Amino acid sequence: MVQFKGLILLIVVIISLKSLNSCATNPKSGVIMADKTTQIQTSDTLFLSSKDYKTISLDDNILDIEITNNQIISLVKNVKYPVIKIELQQGNKIAKGNDLSSSFFPKECDYLYPLDKGYILFINNRINFRKIAK
After folding, report:
1. In Å, how far are 11, 26, 43, 46 from 6, measured between CA atoms?
2. Which has the higher per-residue pLDDT, 4 or 115?
């Protein structure tokens, strides 16, 4: 019986170590220069400069933008769980996705935006950002 308990404990330790090891790996990140002034990172972070979008509405809690750069549009449609760095007049802001079925807010960001199965909910080239209260 003691050997059986020891074997179970060993299996739990091995599974735990494997899951920690898989969480520690980072995908390779690269940077693509769309033109001389636009920088698009191909990992999980997208950079939106002020010329890549136009502001539809901006108030205390909501930021609605329409993406005008076609390269950014294709990235937004294809990158899963991206972090978006937005260039605003008030400075750069960080936005993270929030799955529609999740009740938790993402941490360490200024805005959140809706995700559907890991992809940005993106209708008519528009993204709706909600400000997170700090």
Report:
1. 9, 33, 42, 47
2. 115
